[in-house]
Amino acid sequence: MLHSQKFTAAFADADTEPSTLTEGTYLQLRRDIIEGRLPPGEKLRVEHLKDRYGVGAGTLREALSLLLSDALVVSEGQRGFRVAPMSMSDLEDITRTRVLVEGEALRQSIIAGNDDWEAGLVAAFHKLSKSEEKLGERETGAVREWEARNREYHEALIAGCDSRWLRYLIGLLYRQSERYRHLVISHRNVERDVHAEHSAIYEAALARDVKRAQAALEVHIHLTYDAIRKLLPALE
């Protein structure tokens, strides 16, 4: 998703190509932070990063400034920028807030969603289910396909919600939680049926059962937190 489109898409990346060099650099930096190639606490030295990303110092500083609004980067005044730290207390706070804002967006979406919303949700769930069949192999391509379709599915769930501020907050929190999820994404020993979790939300949403859908979504978000907490005791 481009920085300028955060109010229109919460989860799914936009198809639009970056229109400026700054936007392209921002997206590359954001992905490298989320996927851990730029680890928590790392000093973001412009003189080093401009060669890594093949851009000038001015473009890089502008991109880093954009990342401040994602809370993925922290400013150290005259000392520049650093990748935002991570902790389990931070993830716990993110998790609680996600339950509140995503649950409300889902409620509004179920109430307001029309036939087009239902059709979009059915299509997104079908694609996600197909990609989940491949996920057990843990191949890079399969994982990335699942990640894209997972974002599309969650976007389809709230597509009926027209609150631009809810979308902005959801996207901000989701990208924060992605950082933590990427730390454990390669682990195979997590006993969890993600497809069943997605199915529970999907079935309740299509049935227009707001309370059941919200409860299933809350379970889904909390199970992600529980899996990360189990595998990353060092972050306590």
Automatic annotation (TrEMBL):
Gene Ontology MF annotations: DNA binding; DNA-binding transcription factor activity
Source organism, top-level taxon: Bacteria
UniProt entry keywords in alphabetical sequence: DNA-binding, Transcription, Transcription regulation
Organism of provenance: Noviherbaspirillum denitrificans
Coiled coil: none
Listed name of the protein: Transcriptional regulator
PROSITE patterns from the UniProt entry: HTH_GNTR
Signal peptide: none
Domain HTH gntR-type intervals: 19-86
